[in-house]
Amino acid sequence: MTTLETAADAARDNLTALESEAVHIFREVAGEFDRPVILFSGGKDSTLLLHLAIKAFWPAPVPFPLLHVDTGHNFDEVIEFRDKVVETYGLRLVVARVQDWIDDGRLTERPDGTRNPLQTQPLLDTITEHKFDAVFGGGRRDEERARAKERIFSLRNAFGQWDPRRQRPELWNLYNGRHRPGEHVRVFPLSNWTEADVWNYIAREGIELPSIYYAHRRKVYRRDGMWLTEGPWGGPRDGEVVEELMVRYRTVGDGSCTGAVESAATTVEEVIAEVQASRLTERGATRADDRLSEAAMEDRKREGYF
Amino acid sequence: MSGLLRLATAGSVDDGKSTLVGRLLYDTKSVLADQLDAVRRASVDRGLSTPDLSLLVDGLRSEREQGITIDVAYRYFATPKRSFVLADTPGHVQYTRNTVTGASTAQLAVLLVDARKGVVEQTRRHAAVLALLGVPRLVLAVNKVDLINYDEASFTVIAKEFGAHASSLGYEEGSVLAIPVSALLGDNVATRSENTPWYQGPTLLKHLENVPVAPDPHEAAFRFPVQYVIRPRTAEFPDYRGYAGQIAAGTVRPGDEVVVLPQGLRTRVDSVDTPRGALQEAGAGSSVTVLLTDELDISRGDLIASAEQPPEVTDELTATLCWLSSKSLRQGARVLLKHGTRTVQALVDDLRSRFDEQSLSTVDEPRSLELNEIGGVRLRLSEPLPLDDYSSSPRTGAFLVLDPGDGDTLAAGLVGERFSALACGE
């Protein structure tokens, strides 16, 4: 057996182990909680999450609804994709619109126009309103230092807050989902996946993604070292020049703070090659909100963000 | 060759664990330019002349402020040969709790010592906990060898002392390796050091890439905790009734005779199903759906097991507890016990002994068990559970002890008197 074959076998073996672990986590939640929900943005991690949920309960339908916290600053392609997925699999979709919270005064628009930090309150309000007791997220520990400390089952208090000093130890594959009324548990089945694992699995399973993950021509302008696309989030401003470039997205979030990368990768194989060669993390490359301070992610998690 | 190795680190405060982990990430190119830039900026802010690699992993605000690691963190790195999941455990105050957490899933543990200090109390304690949890392989990383001028004799003394300690804990010679390293400078981490020509063994990374993974649990008897019953009741699958779960030990094939516990019903496996199609055989770690030939009343919490080698079904057991909570345990306490997919009430009938990790001996009839202490107990259960001894089947011999009030995890439990074997070593 050549070295190359060994490496390919090792990668396949690794993906199968990660898949089994994620399926186990989905079934644990289905068995232990009353009202779970899958947070679904239409991005690659939540699409992968949904794919694994479908596998976990096959041939029965997924026993949870989806929840999309809609900032209003969406990429059209992603919303189309979201609605198509919901219809294809006969799922129930709950949408929490940030705009609704702004319209009735529960939230105030920020001066910089970004709505990413405004998602927390609609998320927590919706969890309370629907009495969701387990909320699946696509977070991975390789994304960021504060996330590396996250448990697979992460207990949140009635304010949705995460306290890194009061986490429950997580032993073997015995997950503790006990919580008191008002508390809920965030569940991260992709905790042990890396960005490379996600893409390799998407390739292996032939999972469809929103088109913006692949290179396409798009009108973009430069801001804070990132290529942002035109949109209702206030751009371009004075002095910002719109250019048409071949770009793709490595993450999909609020349009005001998610940047595109220049790319010629139009297939999943080309994306994998590009991700492997990249010297930047996906968040470092394209997420403005993580750059705010050394502990920006930790601070948002403490407030109840994912 | 397994594609995934799960490992844990252990060691005292300031032995350089975070630096070693940072070095592994850095040398396997698992750190990207923007992360490194952030570390460079933060190091300059702290007045340092070279990037402090420990800042790559100490992610929480208070960790960076105090320069210590607070909680277990999980790190990922890969080489062309293997992927690694590393449980990075802090050496600070809550040592046993964190070591237990990291070690519960580890196939190998890297223990750090400072070459200037050698094997200390904490090293002996950590090794005992790793042995207790059955971590099959140990690496002793003798760190900061640059500070002892790469002295062979000092390294050999430390390696020998640790080897003797490990063998008294039941480790065979081939399962323990000592490596002289400097995490700060990179000696023998990913690249062979020219400063230690007397060291003939592999670098740390090479060892991690090539070390055989634990004995194959496929040899063990079949154990399958039922997680969830899959009943689609759709037009396409009107009569489908499958039992979903992750195989805890052994293998299963269609036609195998099995017993459903605790009821004791015997039946046969009709098929082993997955969305990719039915399987001829599935082994430990696989999440599958099992269909049985008879229509039985089976639900979450039941265990499907090999009919030839079933576990004992009992409502009384002897167990070892690693106490992880600041609330103390006293005789007569009522707790919850989570085993596989079933949670039952339990009564602590007898607090029999406490393990002293320093002297590797036991203290009889302690008054209580406190945070980080390990003890032997007799438990009485409200309903019988199918239990294996931890040493023969870790996944079905392990359980959690939960607080019935707030649901917190109080202890890691191991079925059987695990540490009597350790205690007779010295």
Helix content of chain A: 25-40%
The strand count of chain B comes to 22
The spatial strand order of the largest sheet of chain A comes to: 3-2-1-4-6-5
Report strand % of chain B: 25-35%
Name the shape of chain B in a single word.
globular
Oligomer: heterodimer
Number of domains of chain A: 2
Number of helices of chain A: 9
Structural category of chain A is: alpha/beta
CATH first level of the largest domain in chain A = Alpha Beta
Q: Which chains have the largest interface?
A: A-B, 64 and 72 residues
How would you describe what is shown here?
Chain B: Residues 2-216 form the Tr-type G domain. Chain B: It comes from Saccharomonospora amisosensis. Chain B: It is an enzyme of class 2 (transferase). The complex is a heterodimer of chains A (306) and B (426). Chain A is an alpha/beta fold. Chain A folds into two domains: 7-198 and 294-303, HUPs (Rossmann fold, 3-Layer(aba) Sandwich); 210-277, no CATH class. Chain A has helices spanning 3-32, 44-57, 76-88, 98-103, 120-130, 195-205, 268-277, 282-286, 296-303; strands at 36-39, 66-70, 93-97, 134-136, 153-156, 184-187, 216-223, 226-229, 242-248, 261-262. A six-stranded mixed sheet of chain A has the order 3-2-1-4-6-5, with helices on both faces. Chain A starts with a helix and ends with a helix. The model of chain A is unreliable at 288-294 (pLDDT under 50). Chain B has nine helices and 22 strands. The two termini of chain B are 36 Å apart. In chain B, the strands form four sheets. Chain B has a seven-stranded antiparallel sheet with strand order 7-15-11-12-14-9-8, with no helix packed on it. Chain B has a six-stranded mixed sheet with strand order 2-3-1-4-5-6, sandwiched between helices. Chain B folds into three domains: 4-214, Rossmann fold; 218-306, Elongation Factor Tu (Ef-tu), domain 3 (Beta Barrel), CATH 2.40.30; 312-421, Beta Barrel (Elongation Factor Tu (Ef-tu), domain 3), CATH 2.40.30. Chain B has helices at 17-27, 33-45, 61-66, 95-103, 121-132, 152-168, 204-210, 394-397, 418-423; strands at 4-11, 73-78, 83-88, 108-114, 137-143, 176-180, 223-225, 228-230, 242-246, 251-252, 257-261, 265-273, 282-283, 287-292, 303-306, 312-323, 334-339, 342-356, 361-364, 374-387, 398-402, 409-415. In chain B, strand 11 (257-261) and strand 12 (265-273) form a beta hairpin. Chain B is of the alpha+beta class. Mean pLDDT of chain B is 88; it is low at 60-69. The chains are: A alpha/beta (306), B alpha+beta (426). At the A-B interface, helix 1 and helix 2 of A face helix 2, helix 3, strand 2, strand 3 and helix 4 of B.
